[in-house]
From TrEMBL, chain A:
Transmembrane segments: none annotated. Pfam families: DUF6596 (PF20239), Sigma70_r2 (PF04542), Sigma70_r4_2 (PF08281). The keyword Transcription applies. SUPFAM superfamilies: Sigma2 domain of RNA polymerase sigma factors, Sigma3 and sigma4 domains of RNA polymerase sigma factors, TPR-like. GO terms for biological process: DNA-templated transcription initiation. Residues 178-277 form the DUF6596 domain. This is Sigma-70 family RNA polymerase sigma factor. Belongs to the sigma-70 factor family. ECF subfamily. NCBIfam families: sigma70-ECF. One of its GO terms (molecular function) is sigma factor activity.
Automatic annotation (TrEMBL), chain B:
It holds the Pfam family YCII. InterPro entries: Dimeric_a/b-barrel, YCII. Belongs to the YciI family. Residues 24-115 form the YCII-related domain. This is YCII-related domain-containing protein. It comes from the Bacteria. It comes from Flexivirga aerilata.
């Protein structure tokens, strides 16, 4: 890669969202913003190797994209062309006040993640307009045809325009409720990349990286928000274990059996620092931690132990108890039971898990957890049946490989 | 300002007290809806709104041929039909959704919010 190529790639990472968001504000049209930004980057690919890298790549890209957008509007507009173009060229108007934080990218995040859009549309728009992923990349990552993904994005943009979805940061009192939806989108993108099948599919790994990058961006825009910080910590502490998560033969390796030597120490350090930051903030009077902060804390406890046996399980149970007060869903109760097994023994954990049977019968992790406890209690036949059911329901090959190996290890 | 249609749907045929459980409930819903309408009018956001007679009273007219064809009943075959609606003006979708939330609470029904076409949309069609 030449230095110009590298500069374009870096600018794409650093400046794409800023360029699109700035254009979206100025022209009030996501289509124009996105296409003009794409054209500006294409021009950079052509010109930078010959002309040299501009001293301010972000400024160069914004100026070029703005010209492209005006050119396009000139071509498309039949009425009053000169007037319109002149107005846009000399539009130095101050951006409209946008609430607590004035950053174009923050407005773009809230627009892309608007609750009036379907979840899959929010995810697609966020990855396209903020992440700068191509439609083909997003389609590939979510295993759907490119045409379908293109339609999804087009339809969402059409709705934003026709229904007048506002391009602004919600008012202070609405930020909290709307932010929950934004964080859900980012976490979904992260998990889509993290829970991917065993194959080394680069695009799906990229999804986790992209989710982390976007969450970092959100954190820089909302530095005092505990849940944004918590989500970033959760992602970083989870991703730090990626290398230990799948064995060379493609089977999932559970937390207890992972080689902790290959965990990413720098990421763990960062995650721990974020969790400590929140603990200090809460001690200083910030509002109590939400679900992402609590899940991050659980992961901090796991990554704090040198061996699985050294894990502070009572602390994990205590954190799940707090999470239960926010979210008493059966999934949270299932995860809590796993920690209970380490503190109070398999029998009590199994009793708790069995009480979730009706709600979680279709969920592979329920049967996998149950199978593991039955195995530890030497109830071999029941364990075998539970593994069967878990394997049948498991969605990805790495998980099936792990469960099959476990089942084969059963005695008798 | 953008205009939105807020539609409320209900069963094809109504029970004794409209779609409400009792006469008291019905009267309370009417009162709440009336108060909401007044609020809309005062805020300058009310364009038009009213309740419709039951869907079975509708007639579909097809005037495209030489002789009009009349069909008894509503256009769509559906378990639920348009039962009433508002046309409102709101600055953007967020305001429209907030008003729809109040409307839904007042009339005790689900409310569909749909934007009207704008002059811009028409221009887009003409230019294409």
């Amino acid at each position: 890669m030449t230095s110009a190529d590298e500069a374009v790639a870096r600018a794409h990472q650093d400046e794409w969202a800023r360029v699109v968001a700035g254009l979206a504000r100025r022209f009030g049209d996501l289509d124009i913003a996105e296409e003009a930004a794409a054209e500006a980057f294409a021009t950079a690919v052509e010109r930078w190797p010959a002309d040299g890298i501009p001293p301010n790549p972000g400024g160069w890209l914004t100026t070029t994209a703005t010209r492209k957008a005006i050119d396009r509007l000139r071509r498309e507009s039949h009425r009053d062309t000169k007037h319109q173009a002149a107005q846009m060229l000399y539009d130095d108007s101050v951006p409209e006040p946008t609430g607590p934080v004035e950053d174009d990218r923050l407005r773009l995040i809230f627009t892309c993640c608007h609750p009036a859009l379907a979840m899959d549309a929010r995810v697609a728009l966020t990855l396209r307009l903020l992440g700068g992923l191509t439609v083909a990349q997003i389609a590939h990552a979510f295993l759907i045809p490119e045409r379908t993904m293109a339609q999804r994005i087009t339809r969402a943009k059409k709705k934003i325009k026709a229904a007048h979805v506002p391009y602004r940061v919600p008012s202070a009192e609405d930020v909290r409720s709307r932010l929950a939806g934004v964080l859900a989108v980012l976490f979904l993108v992260f998990n889509e990349g993290y829970l991917a099948s065993a194959g080394d599919d680069a695009v799906r790994t990229d999804l986790s990286d992209e989710a982390i990058r976007l969450t970092r961006l959100l954190r820089s825009l909302l530095p005092d928000n505990g849940e944004v910080c918590g989500l970033l910590a959760l992602m970083v502490l989870t991703d730090a274990r990626r290398a230990a998560r799948v064995s060379p033969d493609g089977a999932l390796v559970t937390l207890g059996e992972q080689d902790r030597g290959v965990w990413d120490r720098a990421m763990i350090k960062e995650g721990h620092a974020l969790v400590r930051e929140r603990i200090a903030a809460v001690a200083a009077g910030a509002e109590p931690p939400g679900r992402y902060q609590l899940l991050a804390a659980v992961n901090a406890v796991h990554t704090d132990a040198d061996t699985a046996a050294a894990t502070d399980w009572p602390q994990v149970v205590a954190l799940y108890d707090r999470l239960l007060t926010l979210d008493s869903s059966p999934i949270v109760r299932l995860n809590r039971a796993v920690a209970v097994a380490e503190v109070a023994g398999e029998e009590s954990a199994l009793a708790e898990i069995d009480s979730l049977a009706t709600e979680l019968d279709g969920y592979h992790a329920f049967h996998a957890t149950r199978a593991d406890l039955l195995r530890r209690l030497s109830r071999t036949e029941e364990a075998r049946a539970a593994y069967d059911r878990a394997i049948e329901l498991a969605g990805n090959p790495a998980e099936r490989a792990y469960l099959s190996r476990r089942q084969a290890e059963l005695e008798g | 300002m953008p205009r939105y249609l807020m539609s409320v749907f209900g069963p094809t045929e109504r029970t004794e007290f409209g779609d409400y459980g009792s006469k008291e409930e019905m009267l309370q819903a009417f009162a709440d809806t009336g108060a909401f309408n007044e609020k809309l009018e005062k805020a300058g956001k009310f364009v038009f709104g009213d309740g419709l007679a039951e869907a079975t009273t509708a007639t579909v007219v097809d005037g495209r041929a030489d002789q009009p064809v009349l069909t008894d009943g509503p256009y769509l075959e559906s378990k639920e039909h348009l039962g009433g609606f508002w046309v409102i003006e709101a600055v953007d979708l967020d305001e429209a959704l907030a008003l729809a939330t109040e409307a839904s609470r007042a009339c005790r029904g689900k409310v569909e919010v749909r934007p009207f076409q704008t002059a811009e949309d028409f221009q887009g069609l003409l230019d294409s």
